[in-house]
């Protein structure tokens, strides 16, 4: 039998939690509020290859984000953008840095492309300290640094002044992942600043705020030099015709996206307050999820028994959970279930008072 590359022998296939529940609050998805079942396209030539560079979609994106079309690249989710960056820039044993905890795919793709991923530990309460990142960059001379703001899974933002400070302090490429930026009231996008630096890339997705995780659509923005390099490596026809058209259609309804994200922000306050009342350690979030700690034994399974799935973490994040902000009704049901389940923290509350 042919064997997998040595460096990949201990890699495990990506396996989402598999319990099926009516209320699904584990993966930061949204409702599909942009595309209904009756939508039809007249000129979808499914027998032909799609536009290899998705020109129409990129021109609509250009108008939405106010960045030149030539500086935008689209693909199958921001996952493809992350992989493309590694494919293009990383050589064997190059160091890649990111905060720990952050989005797990940075480390996984780095491994696949033979890089060496180093997580910079976050501080007390998962604070992301940019000076720590700068120190690590000086020590390890990384080729690439991933920043995620708002950060998954903790929900905090990295202030723009910190991001600029890091960019200016290093020659490393910086990939800023803005997957949740539409839900943040305080994070400033760096997309309009890609021309000011020679090492900044920004990636975004339609999977979260646009509620279209199923169509697999993400995009990358950078200065012209970096984008030109990435285009050399991108697979031809990487984005299928159906997704290109759905993306164009979604971008004609930005008003709805703004209303949706406003709504989620309101709901986030409600869930945050309700969880805090249960004496849980709750981390204030600027994304469409909330990260919290509970010492309740088997909380994940107790919620599954109530037909609700959230994300549970393991290893050094044991007892930490991430819940997606759902519809008002789903959030109410989640909180009701939590009130019924949580006994450990209630006991602690009693002992204090
Ligand atoms: C969900 C998520 C993505 C999006 O991935 P897609 O491939 O676009 O679905 C990217 N980065 C982070 C941090 C995420 O949480």
Question: What would you note in describing this structure?
Answer:
Helix content is 36%, strand content 16%. It contains eleven helices and 13 strands. A seven-stranded mixed beta sheet has the order 2-8-7-6-5-3-4, sandwiched between helices. Strands 9-10-13-12 form a four-stranded antiparallel beta sheet, with helices on one face. It has a two-stranded parallel ribbon with strand order 1-11. Helix 2 (77-89) packs across helix 3 (105-112) and helix 2 crosses helix 6. The N and C termini lie far apart (65 Å). The model has no long low-confidence stretch (mean pLDDT 96). The site of pyridoxal-5'-phosphate has 14 residues, from helix 2.
Task: Briefly say what this structure is.
The protein is an alpha/beta fold and 353 residues long. It contains 11 helices and 13 strands. It has helices spanning 55-65, 77-89, 105-112, 130-140, 160-169, 224-233, 241-251, 254-277, 299-305, 328-341, 344-352, and strands spanning 23-24, 72-75, 95-100, 116-121, 144-148, 173-177, 200-205, 218-222, 281-283, 289-293, 308-309, 311-312, 320-324.
